[in-house]
Amino acid sequence: MAIMRLGRVEIGCPNWEKSIEYYKNVIGLIEVAREEDRVYLKAWDEHDHHSVILKKNDSAGLVHLAFKCEFASDLDLYEEKLNNYGVTTERVPAGTRLAEGEAVRFVIPTGQTVELYSEIEVVGNGLPLVNPDPWPDGLVGMHPTRLDHLLVAGDDVDGAVKIFTDLFDFHVSEQLVAGENNDVTICKWLFKTNTAHDIAIIKGPQNGLHHFAFWLDEWVELRNAADIMAKNDVMIDAGPTRHGITRGTTIYFFDPSGNRNEVFCGGYITYPDSPTITWTEDTIGKAIFYFERELNERFTTVFS
Amino acid sequence: MAIMRLGRVEIGCPNWEKSIEYYKNVIGLIEVAREEDRVYLKAWDEHDHHSVILKKNDSAGLVHLAFKCEFASDLDLYEEKLNNYGVTTERVPAGTRLAEGEAVRFVIPTGQTVELYSEIEVVGNGLPLVNPDPWPDGLVGMHPTRLDHLLVAGDDVDGAVKIFTDLFDFHVSEQLVAGENNDVTICKWLFKTNTAHDIAIIKGPQNGLHHFAFWLDEWVELRNAADIMAKNDVMIDAGPTRHGITRGTTIYFFDPSGNRNEVFCGGYITYPDSPTITWTEDTIGKAIFYFERELNERFTTVFS
Amino acid sequence: MAIMRLGRVEIGCPNWEKSIEYYKNVIGLIEVAREEDRVYLKAWDEHDHHSVILKKNDSAGLVHLAFKCEFASDLDLYEEKLNNYGVTTERVPAGTRLAEGEAVRFVIPTGQTVELYSEIEVVGNGLPLVNPDPWPDGLVGMHPTRLDHLLVAGDDVDGAVKIFTDLFDFHVSEQLVAGENNDVTICKWLFKTNTAHDIAIIKGPQNGLHHFAFWLDEWVELRNAADIMAKNDVMIDAGPTRHGITRGTTIYFFDPSGNRNEVFCGGYITYPDSPTITWTEDTIGKAIFYFERELNERFTTVFS
Amino acid sequence: MAIMRLGRVEIGCPNWEKSIEYYKNVIGLIEVAREEDRVYLKAWDEHDHHSVILKKNDSAGLVHLAFKCEFASDLDLYEEKLNNYGVTTERVPAGTRLAEGEAVRFVIPTGQTVELYSEIEVVGNGLPLVNPDPWPDGLVGMHPTRLDHLLVAGDDVDGAVKIFTDLFDFHVSEQLVAGENNDVTICKWLFKTNTAHDIAIIKGPQNGLHHFAFWLDEWVELRNAADIMAKNDVMIDAGPTRHGITRGTTIYFFDPSGNRNEVFCGGYITYPDSPTITWTEDTIGKAIFYFERELNERFTTVFS
């Protein structure tokens, strides 16, 4: 039993029509279903019904994020752990949103609404399960293979991290620390899968969303993605560059509603016994943008 | 608690001196320690003391393979499961080989000796744990980041697979089937991590080793690896090419002792809910070598 | 004044409809014009009206190849040189094929019909000449940027080479030699541009075509091209691999009419003072297929 | 007869020891010879004795640049053309610098000293001329294959360009223009080889050097180069990014003496009939840095 992956994010989109068009044709996600105020999208290589929900909203930002568990019984188990820990939970009934089963919902100390679920309609990745080719025809835009991770902000970073490490068996791959004794947490990167991070939590505005990231397989796809951004007048925040943290390569950019996106590629493999890497405040530039070795102001101040 | 990864392989090397030289300078593994009849090697980005043991031997082939578990208590737990299932186990005392803690040893129905362990000396990956650069200087040869997976052969494939799926919670990512009703297993690919396979088991000579594989991050590194093979007169069996199975890209080649190596790159991410992909016998060429769409005879007949 | 480049090839296509469909959708050339028995195609980044003419024919093979000269006056100049050298020429009037100006036609000692021309309708590369993006939308298939080179066969290799070197100022980048004193020419690679070869001439059947090649910018595009071949059941002859000769990376494959195509990438830059590299017969495997270090029989025996 | 390529640059290096160390170990050029106040370097795949001369100097900047001609007689021919055009020339005797033959020297209207030469000692590229492997062992740093181009500044851009186009048969691949009628030249990119540019000339400080560039074969090598810059605390000015102009991908960075270097990769092929592409002032950001679509101030103001 366990959390398997970051299953979905629901994103507020005040710039509604342009955002839909952007996620479909520029990012290259596939629209699976649509309601009055929600569009359900998936990356091409995901099998579940959706991983990104666009929500027609007055403001940008994260409406909720959700982790998919292996078994239905995991929900009871995690709920009990959360309640014992003092976290209030509620059950979100199946059918609250399209194609989804029941979920356990709670709020983490940094303010984000998190859900755990195990049931969602499976629609497949567009390839047959018998003798498939490696990729389907007809992909457009950057066409990432999947949702990869997100970085959320809030005040009590250590409190939020503890829920993931103590209750959900996440591990800390990297941390950025400050203070005279390097004992003040600025940010922690957490993994449950074998990737370098499934979620990261940074000191910042409560319930803030810094970015959510899509996976690209290779550095050369980042160049292609950057071309597509330029051709479509998408505002690039930073990159293509490398992160010191995770070693991953990256581009940060903004959707038409002001949410920061990332295309991320690479990074090392992690296991429960991977050591935690620490970055000190004086090397924050190299930690975040390894090539430039300095942050732009926008990167540290703009959240949605 | 769980198996975390394929932790090590021990490989018989009749062509002793040349094999050592090859794994160090052509593959680019790092020698960590040496005994009279064993050389202990690690890939640069691994933190544990070793992942490959070369064993001075009269014959090539697999001496043993081992999975690393998260906790010492996992050994008891898995041992009990194995015994209840009817598999005889023995304890390998700490210190039997260099740097290793205690292990549980057993033989799977295809004849391979498998060990489970949780303790091994940690030596690090050559980078500091504070403010590290993304890669160390001084790497040589193909310098893969890590041991990735192996393919073993034997008679009772389904019996061996059952141990991994039923007792160790591995999942089947892909299978190659034959027979009129596609109900004869030729090969199954199994994962415990989020990679496309940690071990695969194929119908073939008992206790056979088809190949073990090192991870390269990108397609371009396969070209570089092939250049290094050509410069060093390493015999290439197949590739650079793509697998239909796993979508990974690959080169197969032989060490000086006759063991088949692979450098492997890519493939999709897996989760416990990933569907099993099936390949039918009539597409076996495409399944194994997607570009060539036919097997060479050597590939299907040479095991060590 | 000078020959600027290999401007076009005209290719016999007995398998007419399938060949048209293949060059357009699998190779990804653009159809510019069509006649009863000819289809005119260009690679996307070429500016001239066409570089490949498919000719409805009873047999596969090269109908003619042509080099584009910088000035109309070059035709007179080369014609005089050819005639003085003892080569008979004829004038092909403008309008003989679509969009083309006048040409000087002659036959080289290996049997191929060669034309020199300077006028052809310019249609552009699909990008504006003011503030263009780096690539246009809507490309399909392998979409090479341009026709790169070809390899033709015949009996009198040295005789054919002499015309290119002595009359047209081509240089020999590489040669494959045989015989006790390495004085028998098997093949010579010739360049006029700064690429590793514009034409190569090999001992073989008179007026033979071994292959013509399209340019891809990067090794990763060869992988993509191979995927497209596999998805479309295109027969691959060899590759992806590297040539020892030119250092270029390559895939050889066949069109539906039996003409061998190549997608070629890389190779060094040449200048008139580049030294000629020699390959001896005993290393022919490595010379042609650097990774495999052996030729397949098909590669040395099949010409169209 | 013709200019074949940009043959060498001589660069002023006030920070003498660090600059030598940098060009050898960070860029990865090979030291061929050394005098009291000059170090002679070549990129690994160049055959001539040197392409970069470091000059111990009080100030950074370009001491001279030189083009290699095919024949000794080209010097007489170009000299006559220059003199007829009103440009004063002088002969630089063989042996003025190491390994070099005689040169014709003159100053272009933007203030740079230019030399034409045809003789220089040939030392080879480290690979045999018979049966060579594709690359030699022992390369360090970014190890570009060759010097590619440079961008110089001065007041009379059109005057300098005319010498290259009218006397030396260079062609304009791209131009950046300003003014109400787009008739003011800011910069022109010129080619004589089939690359996108051999030299570019921009409005700026007289006898200014904006940068000189080394060739890398692939986008992935730019990432590697950027890693090496970060590991060696080399200041990056911009990149990895793409140029709108030439489509090439690039990193700009500074040597320890304050000269701007570039590693450049890609760009289209050119021929004498390639159309000139024009960029208008309002798109200057996209023209120079296609991804960022804005210039940094340093890029437009710092020359050496």
Automatic annotation (TrEMBL), chains A, B, C, D:
Cofactor: Fe(2+)
One Gene Ontology molecular-function label: catechol 2,3-dioxygenase activity
Keywords, sorted A to Z: Aromatic hydrocarbons catabolism, Dioxygenase, Iron, Metal-binding, Oxidoreductase, Repeat
Pfam families from the UniProt entry: Diox-like_N (PF22247), Glyoxalase (PF00903)
Swiss-Prot/TrEMBL catalytic activity: catechol + O2 = (2Z,4E)-2-hydroxy-6-oxohexa-2,4-dienoate + H(+)
Protein's UniProt keywords contain Protein biosynthesis: no
PROSITE patterns: EXTRADIOL_DIOXYGENAS, VOC
VOC domain residues: 5-119, 146-266
Catalytic class of the enzyme: oxidoreductase
Listed InterPro entries: Catechol_2-3_dOase, Glyas_Bleomycin-R_OHBP_Dase, Glyas_Fos-R_dOase_dom, GlyoxalaseI/FosfomycinResist, VOC_core, Xdiol_ring_cleave_dOase_1/2, XylE-like_N
EC number(s) on file: 1.13.11.2
Family statement: Belongs to the extradiol ring-cleavage dioxygenase family.
Quaternary organization: Homotetramer.
NCBIfam families: catechol_2_3 (TIGR03211)
Protein name: Metapyrocatechase
